[in-house]
Amino acid sequence: MTAHTSAPTFNGVPLHPLLVHFAVVFIVLAVVLSIAAVVWPAARRRLGFLVPLVALVATVLTPITTNAGEALADTKKHINPVLAQHIDLGHEMIWWIAPLFVATLAFWAVHDFRSGDGDQLHGGRRIAGWVLSVVIVVLAVGSAIWVYRIGDTGAQSVWLY
Predict the structure, then answer these.
(1) DSSP structure string for 10-28
(2) Where are the alpha helices (DSSP H) in 11-78?
(3) Phi then psi for 11, rounded to 5 degrees?
(4) Which residues, listed in sequence order, are joined to residue 14 by a DSSP beta bridge?
(5) What is the pLDDT of residues 35-82, one digit of tens each?
(6) 8 Å CB contact between 19 and 96
(7) Is the backbone of residue 8 left (phi > 0), alpha (psi -120 to 50) or beta?
């Protein structure tokens, strides 16, 4: 890979490291809020649509951040192995956060908080609620692990190479 383009900047700082902070905050917030909504009924009622909304913002920020990272990587003369791993992991984040958004949206729809009866699920809704709860926890934990791995390899690629 040869350095032939310049990465987008803000105030002279490459956009990727700035966007990363927003993406990480929203991904971690989506993880915490989605797990809280699943395991804590009072939080579920209070948070309502905020959970899928935060997950949506995290989902939108993910490819924007990844694209800014690609532009930054294009400026490098050499991609070290840790940076290559960081790039690969970054591309895979969308496969965790986008399904988490969809699952939290479905969870919100199943619970129908507008009726005030969101915790009293019956029949198919009850089964769907349980299945979505498990899916959300798995995706949230996976998202947390993935964002950690991305950040760790990103930091290593900057500070150790």
Answers:
(1) ETTEEHHHHHHHHHHHHHH
(2) 15-39, 41-47, 50-73
(3) 60, 35
(4) 9
(5) 999 999 889 989 989 999 999 999 999 999 999 999 999 998 889 999
(6) no
(7) beta
